[in-house]
Queue: 2 jobs
Job 1
Amino acid sequence: MNQEEARTRIYKLRKELNKHNHSYYVLSQPGISDYEYDLLMHELIGLENKYPVFFDSNSPSQRVGSDISKEFVQLEHQSPMLSLGNTYSLEELQDFDKRIKKIISEEFEYVCELKYDGTAISLTYLNGKLERAVTRGDGTRGDDVTRNVRTIKSIPLVLSGDNFPDKFEIRGEIIFPKKDFSRLNSEREARGEMPFANPRNASSGTLKMKNSSEVAKRPLDCQFYFILGDNLPFPSHFENLSAARSWGFKVPGQMAKYKNLDDVFSYIEKWDSERESLPFEIDGVVIKVNSFKLQNELGFTAKTPRWAISYKFKAEQVETRLLNVVYQVGRTGVITPVAILEPVVIAGSTIKRASVHNADQLGLMGFYYRDMVYVEKGGEIIPKIIGVVINKRPENATPVEFINECPECGTKLIRIEGEANHYCPNTTGCPPQIKGRIEHFISRKAMDIEGLGEETIELLYNEGLIKSSADLYELTIDQLSILERLGEKSANNIRNGLSMSREVPFQRVLFALGIRHVGETIAKILAREYLSIDALKTARIEDLILVEEIGEKIAKSLVQYFSDPVNLELISRLEQHGIQMKSDKETEIHSGSLNGLSFVISGTFAKFSRDELKELIENRGGKNLSGISSKTNFLVSGENAGPSKLQKAQELNIIIISEQELLDMIG
Ligand code: IVH
């Protein structure tokens, strides 16, 4: 075969393989057997290796990905990726319809689509070829995940047909099919990895993997729902998406066009009851005005189009059996009853346990062993038991009663007056409390010690090498590296991590100590107010409660903590190891630029984590609030910002800013 013949054959093989990919992954109608497909692919790869001049990143052979791992580069969206206003009520849909009809007097059509529950993606095609793939990011900029997206077989790398514009953008949702989800999780569990909570997390987690050949092994899929460009063939959404189907995109067949709201309601009803039968997760239905001209007339609010809305399905409820109630002991000795359930799939995740919070909750539930219970779970929400199916109670069942003694160390439990929790008071002798405190100390938001994790702490504790966080700083390389699974390299990593933790600012050290009721925010307030552990140690209840946000409960807990010689010794040992027990200068210098301003942070961000943004705000004198109220000055909105927060901010005329705008403000 000469070079010219090779070129012809390569082109033919690519075309043929693209066609088979489309039949298999988009139409779900395989045209040839896997074996025949592999033979063609094998031949193509052989020829491409022999004739590298014909390399093309859009060849179907390139979908296998590569091993080179790179951080993602951020790219700006041509037009912002907005979210949708949403509702759970049909009445609000009627209001949506009325609002539109106030502005538009002519007849119009609605397009109904399913609301796919995955990760949004924007693809740009130039002259029929995939140019770039970018995640939603903060709506303005996202991650360039082109290399990973190229491995998704249902995304065309080269388009078919001829009526597509030279340049256009198409947006869709990358999803993880339901059938593959439980398999992925069992494999992860078998490898000792954390299972994904739901298919949506599996899709976003996979999309952000650094190694695209790993992505290629996962069965990601993509459904398309939005197209934009200057020279689209039709002046309406439905018709353009249908055309996109003929160019090779997977545009789900459930998309439908209606002239009146009653038909929209029937569509919603149908898919609410039939969503289980779909091969992918959906969390609602999206309703859009079809005509581009009318969409332009309706326009946008700050964050969402006025011509579209999503109707979200209510949280799913299922019945399952309560097998047992176990009791967890937290690092502060708090006892949490946890219901062990017969595994049941709900809203795409397998639920095996649910927290019952405390003795009062347990009492309210009135469980008997082996009761059937109702469990509810929405997309984001943690599963909860909402009641007992009394008429299915087994005969001779016995009631579940709260325990009196610690399940781990046998100490009699106590309940502090006015508090809902029971505690095990054996702080220095109860193993989960000791380990929990050290695990909290090393955790990301606290001392963030690299190289150390829960498993290593467990190992070190079981070997009798540590009993408190101060002991960590006294471990020798020899002690560390003899441990099972820890080589010299990991031992050095741990030592480096510990050494770096000397830079951690005082406010985080204070949080890391794990004082009951002293969370991150309270630790920051205390560090700002008292500046050093020495000053805080001697503070009296009556002084403490004068500090904003410090109530009697926190004040008592602090005084109690500092009155215990064991804690004082721990602090003094940490201080000897160079841990910061005073506020650092930087915090003081920066403070002030946001004095008197209140912020609510919602969503995820491109440059900083939510916690880091909060820290930036607080370090500059600003205040973080958890919910929107008239006291809020700014809502900092990121990817997937809470729709109810956005809506409320708009209603109250609160300024909505992006991460970048916040950073600009801070300078
Ligand atoms: S349309 C300007 N259609 O939901 C309107 N979005 O809350 C753009 N989504 O970010 C979105 N299914 O990730 C649209 N059929 C559908 C959708 C859909 C899922 C996601 C998408 C978007 C989010 C909006």
Job 2
Amino acid sequence: MGKTLIIGAAGQIGSELTLALRQKKGNEAVIAADIKSECPSLLIDGPYHRLDIMNREEVRSFVQNNAIDEVYLLAALLSATAEKNPDFAWRLNMEGLFTILDLAKEGFLQRIFWPSSIAVFGPTTPNEGTPQHTVMEPSTVYGISKQAGERWCEYYHNTFGVDVRSLRYPGLISYKSPPGGGTTDYAVDIFYKAKAQGNYTCFLNKDTELPMMFMDDAIRATITLMEAPKENLRIWSSYNLSGISFTPDQLAKEIQKHIPDFIIRYEPDFRQTIADSWPNSIDDSYASEDWNWKPAYNLSELVSEMLHHI
Ligand code: NAD
Ligand code: SER
């Protein structure tokens, strides 16, 4: 059995995914890697390496010299940060993917996980119950990079037989590691501000409905997809994945059930335009048919968990 390498392991998803995979496979079998030199305290129980996904040769020799046969590639710039540095975002989000896809094509990797996003959809996409196969005209550099990445994943699968699996994650909500610069980050920040100061100024309008998911569901979906028999899978671009949809107003009202004096204000900024281009809700019937996906957390359970742990 080869080892698993998680690149971007110090981030919001990577830190929790590393913990979950180490629990399944053992600490030494799961190597966490990130451009950050310092190992996050959550990950000190297993191997941690500084690795820059932009350094193709360094990544290639690391994979070949450490008996890695599976990579989770999470390093990327998210939607809001990417808009501030489009050229770098495009290079980071695409070049690393090619490095890993090529390693698999050459036979050094058995399997890859690479996340996509609801950002692959755009203003012309049907926005309620967005289907798996639909119009996709993303208007952000992040969305364009994710859509291109999906096309390349499917191409490497169909042309070279590469086993690369992917999910279009909705906005992810968690309390173990902070989010990394996305448009859905408000739905994490709000909990910290609600508890610390009893009020929050939201950068989206009160009625902006977006697809979201509690991190435990996202980690379970990721591992279930990666363990699914290959012959059951019909989607080799990226699976639609649905959890819960809500607006800032609905989230604030749910928080007020626990903190009655909580006040929310609205000052939309450039992220409003990004959010307006994304769907309200997602149809993930391919995921439920192919690998029995079903989310566990609704809005009230998510809010209780977040307020309990923060
Ligand atoms: P994050 O920003 O929290 O973490 C990304 C990690 O990658 C960081 O720790 C960062 O230091 C690391 N990194 C950056 N540049 C690197 C480099 N050159 N080499 C190695 N590591 C580098 O992001 P996240 O929220 O954990 O997202 C992980 C993946 O999931 C991304 O591809 C993102 O697009 C996707 N995704 C996330 C969400 C979400 O809501 N969090 C939703 C949809 C898709
Ligand atoms: N949560 C992510 C973002 O807002 C969606 O991919 O960028």
